[in-house]
Amino acid sequence: MADTNYDVIIIGSGPGGYVTAIRASQLGLKTAIVEREHLGGICLNWGCIPTKALLRSAEILDHANHAKSFGLKLEGKMTADVKDVVARSRGVSARLNGGIGYLMKKNKIDVIWGEAKLKSPGEITVGKSSKPAVQPQHPVPKGVKGEGTYTAKHIIVATGARPRALPGIEPDGKLIWTYFEAMKPDFMPKSLVVMGSGAIGIEFASFYRSMGVDVTVVEVMTQVMPVEDPEISAIARKALEKRGLKILTEAKVSKVEKGSNSITAHVETKDGKVQKIEADRLISAVGVVGNIENLGLEDLGVKTDRGCVVIDGYGKTNVPGLYAIGDVAGPPMLAHKAEHEGVICIEKIAGVEGVHPMDKGKIPGCTYCNPQVASVGLTEAKAKEQGREVRVGRYSFNANGKAIALGEDNGMIKTIFDKKTGELLGAHMVGAEVTELIQGFVVAMNLETTEEELMHTIFPHPTLSEMMKESVLDAYGRVLNA
Amino acid sequence: MPINITMPALSPTMEEGNLAKWHVKEGDTVSAGDVIAEIETDKATMEVEAVEEGTVGKIVVAEGTEAVKVNALIAILLEDGEDASAIEKSGDSAGSSEAPSKAEKSEAAPAAAADAGSKEVIPVGTEAASGPNPAPKGADGGRIFSSPLARRLAKQNGLDLAALSGSGPKGRIVKSDVDAALKSGTGKAAAADAPKAAAPAAAPAAAPAAAPAGMSKDQVLKLFEEGSYELEPHDGMRKTIAKRLTESKQTIPHFYVSVDCELDALLALRAQLNSAAPTDKDGKPAYKLSVNDMTIKALALSLRDVPDANVSWTADAMVKHKHADVGVAVSIPGGLITPIIRSAEMKPLSVISNEMKDMGARAKAKKLKPEEYQGGTTAVSNMGMMGVKDFSAVVNPPHATILAVGAGEKRPVVKDDALAIATVMTVTLSTDHRCVDGALGAELLKAFKGYIENPMSMLV
Q: How far is B161 from chain A (nearest CA, A)?
């Protein structure tokens, strides 16, 4: 008889689930992971990773279009081949998908293929997936366990999230796209309306704009990337508009008329006027909702709130032995938050000492549009809302040697300190490669440095990172190169 | 590869120890089992044995260094055929020990408290500090691991970091610890308490809640003329006593029950038992019972009879002990220690008496093993031999009770409506009210009084 009893079963193999499984295995727990569609989840099959591959193609194309300014001459014109751009992105995804299979094997984690349903605390049944797999699907890994009943002392729900649909503007996979379709276009549309300007919306808008598409972004809030610091958002918006992106804020898509191969979006602006925008396709990017359905959560009486499972600081639900982590356990719905939440959860289960709940105020966020945006901690406005007196430092890319040499002299690094204590409350960046820079400030915040330690840290020259230090110096009136 | 020798944990609760003595020097060869060093922990001196053979390549922590954290690198052992150059190769981990060097030892001033009350903000355009918030030293000179922000906050709020425990990685003090301390009042340095000190009447009441760490060294010394005192650094035992008893009085709601016990029957029985003790060939008796031995036995039997009082408090559950392990406070030079008579309710008086004699002697020589003084379910503190009439003791967790025993003295008592003379001893039971309520404490004392006044019942 096959062994179907585990210490831990994790439902969902996205970045939260698979990392949790590996950590569980490291801690000596007998671990299985259930996946119904693709190892690595949305993140590396239809999210973070394949979009970065697409955006890389876009970036190279952008550079080529500016070759002249670098003294380079391109004979003829560089053009994108949609099919090959998508194929590369799928290839990147496939490679990582295979990598997860390897990691599971290496860590002696059983992969159970199918859709899990909680039967009772500590018991699941795995059956056929009720959801048709997004095509093209990577091959099912070898050696997986199949349908059946499995038991475990601890069950961790890590089922992730899916695109949110607005009533009346439901994605149809043809004219109204979600990220799934936007990630594998079989033709390059001439025009697009992107509904929503969060990370997903603005990244696709940026990608398609680089591909030469006429893109209009519609955002209900007052600024693009609504969670970002307004000052940073404004710089990003200006740069995006300079690249030919049309942006409508405080505007709402109230209706979408479908034609045979195009749509007409009715966009209502703040003043009550409605403008009709015709485009080949509409991308719906109005957020994601947790996958809490068909899991048997209701039967077990698991508490949920606004589409997410309610957990304590260690991933515990109200049902003993049942945990949830990642997108399904609530915002911010980010892969790195899921990973960390999973590690905290499993370490708590294993009794590792010194495990603390996650500090959600120190989760960085990155958006890979051109120019990139990255941030951690409080915005200036939020800090003031909390009654903090702040010192704010700003440093512009146009005074940094490396940025000028790169031909990327547009952007800003903004730092926010508590005036009284010198606590670094937040850092906000827009410009080239800032998604790689932000981690410096994340480390600083986690180690609880004050402005002093940052001022006494040596930043290498010539780098973009020097701007981080200058921004800190600026907050204390000591900026050097400005 | 060179072998790192780290500060061993000699007991489950040991966090740090003093490196009292090295028995080897660099270049010596050692075999497994050789005693290489002596470590002084909070209450005992223990020997450290080599677990592998090799040559002592480098002594990282000098003899006499205090407060060396458990697992800190103290020495490096070279394997056969390795020379000192292997130490360099073995990486920076070897050189950058967490242990404080001997030189640092004398810097005892807690930097955190030095500028208590300064709340200024670094003005724009000036350099207010010469370097990053300097890492503070503990009272013993050992580095207190803390985040820069925690140090800044502590300094701005006049908080002594040495009084805080850290919740960060490896006990690092982080912002949330300081925030919590500010809320609860822990570690508030003397600057903030000065007004209270000026009102002596109010001070004792306010002190335990507001100023458990007391005034900083600098603040105390400021009140005395230089040269009018000598400074003697605390040893491990003194620090442990300070820490544990502060903790006890801060976290344990004490209450006290007193009772007078007549001793005449007990003294008579004791004389009878001692005179009947068998002697060996040198004429030495096999035992010589003391009143204290009989007190230990009586308390143990009382706890057996009133098992609800033989408990320890934890936040989640009541720990109900199956045996009465009685700690006995033994005064030794520089402090006190409480060796424990395990399962004292089951032991004959002669065994209790001899165990006490043995452990008392070893306690004075600081040779008790940690398991001989850690734990216990209750304690006895006897000051009768010093003529004390009555006093109340501080509960020493995990105990829920402690019995303070006064002197047996002749007092007038009323017997059958007539004045009579009896030898009377007053005992006071301190209890942790979280687990031993008033009536239960009284019941325990009633049982105790019963055994003392009818001592024959202890023999059956």
A: 16
ipTM: 0.80
Q: Is the CB of A214 inside 8 Å of chain B's CB atoms?
A: no
Q: Which pLDDT tens digit goes with each residue over B177-204? A: 999 888 887 766 534 443 333 333 333 3
Contact partners, residue B129, CB within 8 Å, separation at least 6: A452, B122
**Which of helix, strand or coil describes residue A94?**
helix
| Residue A132, SS3 per DSSP | coil
Residues A138 and A242 in one domain: no
Q: Give rounded-to-5 percent helix, strand, coil for chain A.
A: 35, 25, 40
Q: What does the alpha-carbon distance between residue A197 and residue A180 come to, in Å, rounded to a whole number?
A: 17
**pLDDT mean across residues, chain A:** 96
* B296: Cα separation from own chain's centroid: 21
The count of other CB atoms within 10 Å of the CB of residue A438 is 23
A113 and A202 assigned to the same domain: no
Answer with the one of B184, B209, B241 that is the final residue of a domain. Answer: B241
Helix (H, G, I), strand (E, B) or coil at B9: coil
The two structure tokens encoding residue A77:
């014109």
Q: How far apart are CA A425 and CA A261, in angstroms?
A: 49
DSSP B340: E
Cα dihedral B391/B392/B393/B399 (nearest 10): 140
Helical residues (DSSP H) of A157-287, grouped into ranges: 179-182, 199-210, 230-242
Query: Taking CB atoms and an 8 Å limit, are B149 and A450 in contact across chains?
Result: yes
**Domain match, B293 and B363 both:** yes
Domain count of chain B? Answer: 3
Both B277 and B413 in one domain: the answer is: yes
- Domain identity same for B198 and B265: no
Q: What is the DSSP letter of B435?
A: T
On whether the CB atoms of residues A430 and A423 are closer than 8 A, the answer is no
B355 CA to centre of own chain: 21
For tokens 């693709």, name the residue: A38
8 A C-beta contact, residue B405 and residue B321: no
Please tell me the distance from the alpha carbon of residue B257 to that of residue B89, in angstroms, as a whole number: 65
> Are A293 and A282 in the same domain?
no
Backbone angles phi, psi at B238, to 5 degrees: -60, -40
Number of folded domains that form chain A: 3
Q: Which two tokens stand for residue A224?
A: 């693009």
Distance from CA of A340 to the nearest CA of B (A): 16
Q: Is A449 on the interface with B (CB under 8 A)?
A: yes
Q: Decide which of B218, B241, B264 is a domain's last residue.
A: B241
Q: Specify whether B95 is located in the same domain as B115.
A: no
* pTM, to two decimals: 0.61
Q: Identify whether residues A210 and A256 lie together within a single domain.
A: yes
Residue of B nearest to A448 (CA): B149
- The pLDDT tens digits of the residues spanning B221-248 come to 888 888 888 888 888 788 888 888 888 9
Residue A324 forms beta bridges with which residues? A157
CB B311 within 8 A of CB B434: no
Q: Enter the DSSP assignment of B171.
A: G
Q: Which of A448, A454, A473 would you mutate first to test chain B, the one with the most B CBs within 10 A?
A: A448
Cβ proximity of A212 and A61 under 8 Å? no
Q: Which residues contact B316 (CB under 8 A, 6 or more apart)?
A: none
Please tell me the predicted confidence (pLDDT) of residue B137. Answer: 63
Q: Is A420 on the interface with B (CB under 8 A)?
A: yes
Q: Extract the tokens encoding A87.
A: 């194929």
**DSSP strands (E only) in A63-114:** 110-113
Of A296, A290, A351, A353, which is closest to residue A319 (Cα–Cα)?
A296
Chain segment B39-71, per-residue pLDDT in tens: 887 667 777 877 778 888 888 888 888 888 888
